[in-house]
Amino acid sequence: MYAIYRLFAHYNAWANARLYDAVAGLSDTDYRADLGVFFGSLHRTLNHLVVTDRIWLKRFTGSGDAPDRLDAILYDDLDSLRVARGAEDARIISWVEGLSDADLAALISYRPVSNPVDITQPLAPALSHVFNHQTHHRGQCHAMLTRLTGTAPSLDLAPFQRESGLGMS
């Protein structure tokens, strides 16, 4: 089971880097434009992904900052946000690479920000959610980029696998 999470951690960083490369070419007006997705703009959606990764990593590891709002704006400029994104991706990879199958089966307990009730579940499904959540919101960013520029980079898993060799055997 561990191998799939290693693949997803590395894929996640690759897809985020490609997305940030594309977003860097936008004007600040386009970057902040409310385009009707859940968090409105690329700026707010990209901040949300850093927020939620920090919340989940705090739950998983017991360390780091955990914002108390899902719509918190941690960084007001793209350059600072990109540095933070890279640091979170490196943190995720490092943590995932230290996991064992026993760790993935272990129970974790936490309280969601949006519905503060006690939850206990195995780590593996919670970690699956983290990677799926990233993919979901990157898809929204992809749609916003396409609307703004007419094009967006491929963020598919298969090109990552061909480039990296991960998950190919």
Describe the model.
The chain is mostly helical and 169 residues long. It has one domain: Up-down Bundle (Four Helix Bundle (Hemerythrin (Met), subunit A)), CATH 1.20.120. Helix content is 63%, strand content 5%. The protein has seven helices and two strands, in the order αααααββαα. The protein has helices at residues 2-23, 28-32, 42-61, 78-97, 101-105, 123-149, 157-164; strands spanning 107-110, 119-122. It has a two-stranded antiparallel ribbon. β1 (107-110) and β2 (119-122) form a beta hairpin. It is globular and about 45 Å long. The two termini are 14 Å apart.
What is the compact description of this entry?
This protein has 169 residues and is mainly alpha-helical. The protein contains seven helices and two strands; from the N terminus they run αααααββαα.
